Amino acid sequence: MRLADQNGDEDKVLRIVPSLDPSALALSPAEGFLLSRIDGRTSRGLLRRIGALAPAEIDRCLERWLKAGVLELVRPSESRSALEARPVKPAPAGKPAAHTEARPVEPAPAGAPAARTTWPEVDASLELEVEVQQELLAFAERLARPYHEILGVPRDADARTLKKAYFALSRRLHPDRYFRRNIGGFTGLVETCFKKLLEAYELLSDPQTRAEVEARFASLELTPARRSSIDARRRLRERVGALSGARRATEARRRKAKSFFEAGMAAFAKERWLEAAGAVRLAIAFDAENEAFRDRFAEVQRRAHDERARALVRQAEGALELRDFAGASSLFEEAVHFRPADPELSCRAARIAWQALGELRRAKELAAHAVELAPENGGYRRLLGLIYRDAGLAANAKRELEAALRLDPQDAEAKSALRGL
């Protein structure tokens, strides 16, 4: 029976035939690793992502082993029983249930397909633009990809490129942006996407964790040149020994990750947010499969981001007292980076760029972001209108100033500016 002939073969589960002695097989190291991953619970789709071979080669191996009687398909009832026997953390209210197959390894090998789950359909009746719904669904398709692909940057992207990509995405994906909006089933998707975005950015932007991520990524890649150099006739016991060494190394990494996580939680309990975030970030880098680390990371990192933003605002206010407007502008924009859903920070940064530096393009972007976050705030509308006026965009200025007056008919500055257009 050919595995590929079955409907929904991505979800098929395989196991080694119980009566088989694997030591009698002649396997390459990569084939030995693939065989070691077949445990009666892991789906074919996941094997294709973590098997250390190209997906097509993994398919050929599985077909060959099925035909030779090395493997057999697990009946659906047995597969369900195995999954039900493992504890599953209940999903938070409003969040889509987690996929039931084994957890994917992060980062995934190049070319690995994204993990699939059930996401909401596009719904024009929601208080969420259709364009944003489509963007969220597209982002969800790459949640299981390597971190740099999640951010949409080259693998060797520098810190500035990472920050720019994160800032652009976080402005759209931050859950606070949709607070009190009716976004239906997208509530859980927004949270899931932002948590993964935050994880990707933080682990790549820190040199130590990035080194661990890159090392793991490299260990999962096998180029054709490397595969061609493997002696296919080595005895299985040699490969089993190598795999045992790999398992010992993995266990050592997991112990180290656990110690980092425990240190992070101790720091979190004492409200040392930055210390906690750094420790949990290292825990994920050393044990990317542990969902408990990921579950806590977003909460820890948000607290750390708030702390960073507060410190930057204090520095920016100090720079303003010294009339260092360029320094203050840079610090406020850095604070916006760590708190992208705070319209007041964007407004303050926009005012400095407009009034003190004359950087109208940047001021317009920041003011427009504040309006996007808080469209019912007349002050933000007025600010954007005044910036448009100074940029010579009279029609845009008129639109925003009129909107400001609708929200606050007593706004004297908006009235005066509108009369002067």
User: Averaged pLDDT, please?
Assistant: 78
SS element count, helices: 19
Q: How would a crystallographer describe the biggest sheet?
A: 2 strands, antiparallel
Distance between the termini: 77 Å
Q: Under the CATH scheme, which class of the domain at 129-223?
A: Mainly Alpha
What name does CATH use for the topology of the domain at 129-223? Helix Hairpins
Helix content: 55-70%
Widest sheet: strand ordering: 1-2
Please trace the helix and strand order, writing H or E for each element.
EHHHEHHHHHHHHHHHHHHHH
Description:
The chain has helices spanning 29-37, 44-50, 55-67, 76-84, 130-140, 147-151, 159-173, 186-205, 207-220, 224-228, 236-269, 273-286, 291-321, 325-338, 343-356, 360-373, 378-390, 394-407, 412-419; strands spanning 14-16, 71-73. It has 421 residues and is mainly α. Among the domains are: 3-84, Outer Surface Protein A, domain 3, CATH 3.90.930; 129-223, Helix Hairpins (Orthogonal Bundle); 359-421, Tetratricopeptide repeat domain (Serine Threonine Protein Phosphatase 5, Tetratricopeptide repeat, Alpha Horseshoe), CATH 1.25.40. Strands 1-2 form a two-stranded antiparallel ribbon. Mean pLDDT is 78; it is low at 1-7, 79-116 and 222-235.
What can be said about this structure in brief?
The protein is mostly helical. It has 19 helices and two strands. Among the domains are: 3-84, Alpha-Beta Complex (Outer Surface Protein A, domain 3), CATH 3.90.930; 129-223, Helix Hairpins (Orthogonal Bundle), CATH 1.10.287.110; 359-421, Serine Threonine Protein Phosphatase 5, Tetratricopeptide repeat.
